[in-house]
UniProtKB/TrEMBL annotation:
Active site (catalytic residues): 111 (proton acceptor)
Family according to the record: Belongs to the ribose 5-phosphate isomerase family.
Catalytic activity from the UniProt record: aldehydo-D-ribose 5-phosphate = D-ribulose 5-phosphate
One GO CC term on file: cytosol
SUPFAM superfamilies associated with the record: D-ribose-5-phosphate isomerase (RpiA), lid domain, NagB/RpiA/CoA transferase-like
Alphabetical list of CDD domains matching this protein: RPI_A
Gene transcribed to yield this protein: rpiA
Source organism of this protein record: Leptolyngbya iicbica LK
A Pfam family it matches: Rib_5-P_isom_A
Positions contributing to substrate binding: 32-35, 89-92, 102-105, 129
EC number: 5.3.1.6
Pathway where it operates: Carbohydrate degradation; pentose phosphate pathway; D-ribose 5-phosphate from D-ribulose 5-phosphate (non-oxidative stage): step 1/1
Name of the protein this chain belongs to: Ribose-5-phosphate isomerase A
Length: 233
């Protein structure tokens, strides 16, 4: 049998560790991305084996809802539940205070709603995502109403960012979010004050939400690969 790529193996182990923290009779926020996809798969496995019972998932994207259905996780909505016990989601950068940049999958608007309501929010990443200062490696995703792309680009540029409209994989059109909007990727040198920047950007007319998650994460599970072996800390 072909050996699994070590990075994929590591994502799988982080996803498994996060899924193991979910208890029966809970409402679970289901994040978006390749690492969380493994957590969703393992939640489905635990339900199928009977080890876990009666959970309901709140998906953060169309992608997460498709995966949840595939792995047999019953879904609910924020109209039906008054709290989320635990959320599992990936991130693109994590700073030492557990502040995050998210939105590499263009899902940060729904992710912030769901993850922010969770009593326990577990972030699943690999060690390459750990940074001293947010913004140092990853551009900040900003979801924007299509008619406001030009003025918001100018406003972000005035804040010191280099701004790109996110294009689809074939570069033949912009990425469209689950809400029907577009994403501007704003690359700063580093973001000195994430809380201030989060509020400031969300105040620009035409911005729906940006990918700074400040003070939301309660735990970060970090996967590593050493000598071809995956581990989680
Ligand atoms: C989606 C996200 C993802 O969680 C983030 O991009 C990490 O994804 P992956 O686990 O594939 O690296 O924020 O909007």
């Amino acid at each position: 049998m072909a050996e699994m790529d070590p990075v994929k193996l590591m994502k799988q182990e982080v996803g498994r560790a996060a899924a193991a923290k979910v208890q029966s009779d809970t409402v679970v926020g289901l994040g978006t991305g390749s690492t969380t996809a493994f957590a969703i798969q393992f939640l489905g496995d635990r339900l199928a084996s009977g080890e876990l019972k009666n959970i309901k998932g709140v998906p953060t994207s169309f992608q997460a809802s498709v995966l949840a259905k595939k792995y047999g996780i019953p879904l609910t909505t924020l109209d039906e539940v008054d709290k989320i016990d635990i959320a599992i989601d990936g991130a693109d950068e994590v700073d030492p205070q557990f502040n995050l940049i998210k939105g590499g999958g263009a899902a940060h608007t729904r992710e912030k709603i769901v993850d922010g309501l969770a009593e326990q929010f577990i972030v699943v990443v690999d060690s390459s995502k750990l940074v001293e200062k947010l913004g140092s490696t990853f551009a900040l995703p900003v979801e924007v109403l299509p008619m406001a792309v030009a003025p918001v680009t100018r406003a972000l540029t005035a804040l010191g960012a280099t701004v790109d409209l996110r294009m689809g994989v074939n570069k033949d059109g912009p990425v469209i979010t689950d809400q029907g909007n577009m994403v501007l990727d704003a690359k700063f040198e580093a973001i000195a004050n994430p809380a201030e920047m989060e509020a400031h950007i969300n105040n620009i007319p035409g911005v729906l939400e940006n990918g700074l998650f400040v003070g939301v994460a309660t735990e970060v599970l970090v996967g590593e690969v050493k000598d071809g072996q995956a581990s989680v800390r």
